[in-house]
Amino acid sequence: NAGVTQTPKFQVLKTGQSMTLQCAQDMNHNSMYWYRQDPGMGLRLIYYSASEGTTDKGEVPNGYNVSRLNKREFSLRLESAAPSQTSVYFCASSEPGSGANVLTFGAGSRLTVL
Amino acid sequence: DAKTTQPPSMDCAEGRAANLPCNHSTISGNEYVYWYRQIHSQGPQYIIHGLKNNETNEMASLIITEDRKSSTLILPHATLRDTAVYYCIVRLPRTYKYIFGTGTRLKVLA
Description:
The structure holds 2 protein chains of 2 kinds. Chain A is mostly beta strands.
């Protein structure tokens, strides 16, 4: 099992450009999440999707949009990138019905906005 | 979800037990305590979780005080590979907002 796969692993953008971070999980989890982590900081929740067809804002949603394309895939879009969005982005999934509802994370996508 | 307080950093000698404390004085009766760790810039990794009773798995032990206001993660024989940032999280198991704090940076010394 691959678990949670994120693409791309690295990306450099210019201010104002747009891009989409892709995330796919093969564990049949219902819930998926996007986090960002700035240098020396903890993870902050951007958006989450409790189940296919639903999305909700987390702690820091401004400047981002998400799409839960199907049960496996959850994408994060930056419409007009800003230097403040330079960060490492982590996608995660979990199965709330499993009791523990443990998060499984991807390897991260490192984004630099110039 | 209740807030947690952790020391920003700790050192531990290789081979010794690492005891990482977490304060969660506002925890409610149904909230679980979860521990994750993050090695370098990898995605966080689940370690253990518990509600009231002490828990042990192949990675660590979790000791929760009787009043549930604090807990301790124990790595019984720390190795250099245990050097990481450790996050203590309190949450209801069927909620979706997993909120991470800044964690404890554990450095295992040779």
